[in-house]
Amino acid sequence: MKAFLSIFFTLVCQTFASEPVTKYEGEVAGIFCSACSSHVKAALSKIEGVQSVKITTADKGGLPKLKITSTKPLTREIAIQALGEKAKMYHIQSLKPVTR
Known about the structure:
Layout: H1 2-17, E1 22-29, H2 34-45, E2 50-56, E3 65-70, H3 76-83, E4 91-97
Antiparallel strand pairs: 1-3, 1-4, 2-3
């Protein structure tokens, strides 16, 4: 019983203590293959608060779409900084919070 209560309170505290999550969407140029996508995902995943990074293939004539979920505020500049030297190859064109 004691173990059950301990687990129960841990789960309840995590639920109420969780930070709000914001979704961001944007476009990124320079991604031509899955390796490129992996490089960008790995760099952006290291940003504090980022929970997930998803890059979808471009529509015909468009740029690949970038979707990021984060518990911390995120800007295009922060994302570019996270790319470091890779920012020379991959260009984050836009990144804005989703307001739906």
